[in-house]
Amino acid sequence: MNRRSVSRTTSFDVAVVGAGVVGAATALALAREGLRVVLVEGREPPSWDAATPDLRVYAFAPDNAALLDRLGVWSAIESARSQPYRCMRVWDAAGGGELAFDADRLGRLELGWIVENALLVDRLWKALPAAGVTILCPDRVQEFSQDDSGASVGLESGTRLRARLVVAADGAESQLRQLARIDAPTRDYGQRGLVAFVEHERPHQSTCWQRFLPTGPLAFLPFTPAAEGRHRSSIVWTLPETEAERMAALDDSAFLGELDRAFDGPLGPLLAVSRRAAFPLRRQLASTQRQGRLVLVGDAAHVVHPLAGQGVNLGLRDVAALQQALGADGGVGDPGAPARLQRWARARKSESAVAAGTFEALNAAFSNDLLAPTLLRGHLLGLAGRMSMLTRALWRRAAGL
């Protein structure tokens, strides 16, 4: 990939640190507004490999597909590999009713798409040079300071960037957030999310399935067929840490047996499983998403429970709102001016706090075997499922519409 050379000290309108999905989308979105953007990343991502699906997948919402379409990359993602889903079914292992979302009833062709992280990053990176984004990779942030007129970012290479706005998109352990001394209180859930691809006998019916168990939710997300057309789904299984470690250590046959019993058969016998991985689950919310000329987006600002698949969707909504705030006057003026950023920061922090609290409450209510919640929760899901206006409102909230 071509990279523009920069002098030891170079000025830009915006410096974005971190080039995952959210960081790369931020750089592309702000460059589309006519701003001079530099993107700093410690490691160039590997090219997407169709033969090796990325275990990290997202339930991609319609508003964020529309964002990437406006940025000119969604068609390249969708044509490479994306799995539309048209239904969602949620139920509790203890019984009761079911909460279901159906595209036909909601007047949609699909509710969303299942997309791999590696594919999203790959297509976003490929679009950056043509948009005029300067890429500094590999390089890392070592110093950060700011004043009324701009901010300075010192890199490991010795390069010093001067920018009117700096965007921290460098993940949950954000170096920029730490250098700016922004607190990010964390609550460890004592759980891990175990992920894998599973092949099964019956078609997935373009449906996302989620079963609540006392140990945590188990989700099957529809995915494109495996070799020879075998039906395949991506799983995300929330488990207590010790149980996740035990499951990860099982051989394939034993693991599939445990998974089959936990899921209880909507897709028929489970036939094969890919490699597995597990990651710790926690809530982490930065105390603010703006400090002077620094703003935080994505996991640098908020980490939430994955049970509703909203992590990357929240991050991209940060990007869409920031693009709107900075492009309101055609991209002229100072992108780091407080008047542009204050309202954005308040609104984004409020939405992420509500989302984190909601997902945490759902996880606490459904991930236990206490008598009262066990007797009530399945029936409450069924009641919600029978209330069409509530179902529509819940889906529109999750879809960002």
From TrEMBL:
Cofactor (UniProt): FAD
Domain of life, source organism: Bacteria
Domain FAD-binding: start-end pairs: 12-328
Keywords attached to this entry: FAD, Flavoprotein, Monooxygenase, Oxidoreductase
InterPro entries the UniProt entry points to: FAD-bd, FAD/NAD-bd_sf, Ubi_Hdrlase_CS, UbiH/COQ6, UbiH/COQ6_monooxygenase
Record-stated family: Belongs to the UbiH/COQ6 family.
Alphabetized PANTHER family for the sequence: 2-OCTAPRENYL-6-METHOXYPHENOL HYDROXYLASE, UBIQUINONE BIOSYNTHESIS MONOOXYGENASE COQ6, MITOCHONDRIAL
This protein's name: 2-octaprenyl-3-methyl-6-methoxy-1,4-benzoquinol hydroxylase
UniProt organism field: Lysobacter spongiicola DSM 21749
